[in-house]
């Protein structure tokens, strides 16, 4: 107990553990991912006790369905770099313990420092959507438990993603050919969040006494007995005076498992290290980013029924958010977004006793989303506070996959998986402003119907050489309307009526990849993919002011299919004291769809384009070829033992360059970043310090984009976890810690954010967190 002087509070808990703390485990934690491929190997299972009989009511014995429960994995070490080596392209994994330590409130904030990933950070802590390799919104998919996340975050950077890391158990970022599983609108990649809202296994309760990680456990109690487990997740943050908390409950018995969770978060305006407004020095700030407070909450309840060979389950989830929009316009108009989403999801799996079919899986979901953008119509008149814009999204989706049993082709073992996906979406964005015109909202009512089929083939030539061949074809039909804009989009008699549009597209995509084990536990991969993407509704039907981007968006109903041709090579190592992954990629876009700023200014209606003093940039959705190329690297090296643990170094690097054929730059591309740090960990403790340097971004678009200065982001953390004696502490397991962010109090602006010249990222802050399992 010699270390207790440095952490007296934590030692009150650790004193009950064995004094002879274990040495660091030689085995590294296994990284299990589910999002990349529909082909999954069977995992080892342990049979439940007494699988053939059970006691029925009245005391008689009755047959019981055969059920299997996955063996409980050993507790993963904290802070170990998770490297996925069995996939054909890079997969970034944020495991549960890192989620608990991070405390990020949005997916964009959570992933912002990962190689190759940034966040839009339109409203830090409230709305920040992941950007992968410089690609955002319509090229990055977001799913939860295999079903689209819903919401309207792909329609505006000020819109939040209704998936909260506080209730997630793991986040996976999938790039490359595996994105074909989810649709052509995932060219950049897919962010997949998983949780236990639809249980996939019966919970198990352990009768083992409390113990420290790394010590042998006694046999668990019979899994057939009724079981209830609970978990609490709480934290406090100084930079925004924030508090958050969540409670998760899991129960099981017989053939049923249930899950329920509820969470909430509330913050004030966050502290900043300087003056946020670059081009207006007259506004009062008082050390905090004006209009940046957040309040959100949610709850979910779900359950599953287990039968011989599979399970089926469903859940209903409610998500609510009320958050403010920082920036000059948001602050002046007191803009805030009041959002609500109700989502019903279902999924299941069946493994039949068949010589041909290994597994059949399905996912289904229905989303009802609505948010109101509230603010002042007249900044000088508080009585004009009201709804300025409404977004609604009603969406249904279903996906079915069938994985076949492996087939011996003599030269290789072939495993095939087929998938069918279908969806329907109804969008609307009305506004009470500009009544009687065709510009009362960003776009009018529109629908999107899509159906797709895909196939993944994996060939194992030898235990060390594998290949993948995949393909997808889909049909997308949209129905909406746009005004008949003048050819030059300038006010030569503004359009007075909407014209019905019903474009349809049939995108086709394919990929091929090779995975090769090399000496020294190295794994190399090379993939090539051809992906076609159909335009989205916002790109086709927009015809109004868009406050999030400070643009007057004009959709183009004549857009054609966008095509991306990519080659990616990778080298990875997941075992041993030196772990790393390195990736390089080259993507050639044909008919790349983007917002083209014309240099003309408009106010809220089209008639005023070119009027002096207007405040919106005219933006027309256009197409031209583009070239993206880049590289990513991260590593971790266990240098040497130190005390009861190991100390080591880690580093990272990422770069993306995106240009049009004439050499001009694609707008809002992340800068070159390089970073590194030190860590020390043992079975209970983790300490880390890390510095990430982002270089200045001067490769900018020629219109309406400004350079972004570089910055240094210094983070440090210390955390402690242990088993507890439930009889003494109530809880059976604890994870607590302290995290410091932006410890240099740097003025950080995000080059990919539309509001970077008006919004600074949070300054120096400290977060304390506690996670208890009962």
TrEMBL record:
Its main location: membrane. It holds the Pfam family TonB_dep_Rec_b-barrel. It comes from the Bacteria. This is TonB-dependent receptor. The keyword Iron does not apply. The keyword Zinc does not apply. Gene3D superfamilies: TonB-dependent receptor, beta-barrel domain, TonB-dependent receptor, plug domain. PROSITE patterns: TONB_DEPENDENT_REC_3. Residues 88-190 form the TonB-dependent receptor plug domain. PANTHER family: TONB-DEPENDENT OUTER MEMBRANE RECEPTOR, TONB-DEPENDENT RECEPTOR NMB0964-RELATED. Residues 300-742 form the TonB-dependent receptor-like beta-barrel domain. Residues 51-70 have a biased composition (Low complexity). It is found in: Cell outer membrane. Keywords: Cell outer membrane, Membrane, Receptor, Signal, TonB box, Transmembrane, Transmembrane beta strand, Transport. Belongs to the TonB-dependent receptor family. Residues 19-80 are annotated as: Disordered.
């Amino acid at each position: 107990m010699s270390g207790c002087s440095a952490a007296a509070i934590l030692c009150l808990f650790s004193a009950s553990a064995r004094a002879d703390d274990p040495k660091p485990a030689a085995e590294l934690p296994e990284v299990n991912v589910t999002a990349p491929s529909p082909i999954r190997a069977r995992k080892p299972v342990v049979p439940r006790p007494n699988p053939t009989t059970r006691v029925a009511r009245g005391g008689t014995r009755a047959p019981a369905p055969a059920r299997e429960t996955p063996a409980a994995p050993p507790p993963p070490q904290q802070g170990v770099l998770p490297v996925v080596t069995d996939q054909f392209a890079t997969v970034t994994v944020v495991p549960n313990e890192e989620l608990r330590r991070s405390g990020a409130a949005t997916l964009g904030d959570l992933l912002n420092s990962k190689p190759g990933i940034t966040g839009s950070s339109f409203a830090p802590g409230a709305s920040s959507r992941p950007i992968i390799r410089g690609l955002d919104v319509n090229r990055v998919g977001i799913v939860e438990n295999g079903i689209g996340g819903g919401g309207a975050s792909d329609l505006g950077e000020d819109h939040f993603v209704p998936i909260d890391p506080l209730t997630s158990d793991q986040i996976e970022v999938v790039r490359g050919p595996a994105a074909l599983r989810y649709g052509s609108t995932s060219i950049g990649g897919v962010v997949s969040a998983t949780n236990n809202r639809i249980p996939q296994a019966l919970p198990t309760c352990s009768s083992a006494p409390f113990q420290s990680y790394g010590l042998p456990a006694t046999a668990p109690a019979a899994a057939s007995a009724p079981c209830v487990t609970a978990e609490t997740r709480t934290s406090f943050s100084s930079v925004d005076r924030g508090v958050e908390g969540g409670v998760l409950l899991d129960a099981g018995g017989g053939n049923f498992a249930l899950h329920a969770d509820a969470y909430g978060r509330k913050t004030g305006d966050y502290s900043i290290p300087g003056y946020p407004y670059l081009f207006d020095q007259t506004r009062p700030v008082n050390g905090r980013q004006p209009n940046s407070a957040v309040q959100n909450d949610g709850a979910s309840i779900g359950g599953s029924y287990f039968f011989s060979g599979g399970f089926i389950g469903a859940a209903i989830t409610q998500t609510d958010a009320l958050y403010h929009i920082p920036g000059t316009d948001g602050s002046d108009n007191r803009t805030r977004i009041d959002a609500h989403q109700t989502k019903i999801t279902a999924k299941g799996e069946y493994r039949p006793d068949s010589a041909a079919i290994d597994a059949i899986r399905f996912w289904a979901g229905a989303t009802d989303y609505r948010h109101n953008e509230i603010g002042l119509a007249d900044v000088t008149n508080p009585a004009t506070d009201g709804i300025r814009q409404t977004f609604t999204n009603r969406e249904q989706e279903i996906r079915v996959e069938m994985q076949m049993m492996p087939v011996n082709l003599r030269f290789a073992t072939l495993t095939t998986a087929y998938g069918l996906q279908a969806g329907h979406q109804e969008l609307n964005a009305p506004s009470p402003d500009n009544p009687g015109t065709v510009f009362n909202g960003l776009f009018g009512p529109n629908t999107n119907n899509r159906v797709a089929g895909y196939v993944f083939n994996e060939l194992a030539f030898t235990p060390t050489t594998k290949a993948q061949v995949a393909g997808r074809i889909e049909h997308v039909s949209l129905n909406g309307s746009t005004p008949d804009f003048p050819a030059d989009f300038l006010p030569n008699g503004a359009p007075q009526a909407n014209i019905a549009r019903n474009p349809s597209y049939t995108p086709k995509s394919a990929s091929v990849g090779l995975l090769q084990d090399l000496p020294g536990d190295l794994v190399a991969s090379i993939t090539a993919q051809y992906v076609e993407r159909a335009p989205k509704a916002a790109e086709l039907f927009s015809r109004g002011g868009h406050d999030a981007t400070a643009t007057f968006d004009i959709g183009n109903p004549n857009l054609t299919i966008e095509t991306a041709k990519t080659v990616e090579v990778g080298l990875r190592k997941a075992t041993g004291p030196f772990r790393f992954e390195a990736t390089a990629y080259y993507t050639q876009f044909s008919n790349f769809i983007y917002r083209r700023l014309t240099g003309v200014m408009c106010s809220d209606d089209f008639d005023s384009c070119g009027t002096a003093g207007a405040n919106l940039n005219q933006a027309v959705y256009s197409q031209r070829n583009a070239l993206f190329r880049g590289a990513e690297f991260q590593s971790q090296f266990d240098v040497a033992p130190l005390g009861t643990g190991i100390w080591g170094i880690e580093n990272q690097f990422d770069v993306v360059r995106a240009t049009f054929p004439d050499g001009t730059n694609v707008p809002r591309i992340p800068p070159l970043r390089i970073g590194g740090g030190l860590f020390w960990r043992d079975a209970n403790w983790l300490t880390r310090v890390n510095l990430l340097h982002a270089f200045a971004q001067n490769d900018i678009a020629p219109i309406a984009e400004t350079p972004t200065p570089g910055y240094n982001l210094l983070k440090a953390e210390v955390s402690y976890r242990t088993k507890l004696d439930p009889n003494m502490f109530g809880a059976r397991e604890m994870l607590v810690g302290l995290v410091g962010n932006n410890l240099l109090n740097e003025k950080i602006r995000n080059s990919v954010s539309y509001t970077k010249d008006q919004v600074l990222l949070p300054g120096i802050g400290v977060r304390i967190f506690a996670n208890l399992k009962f």
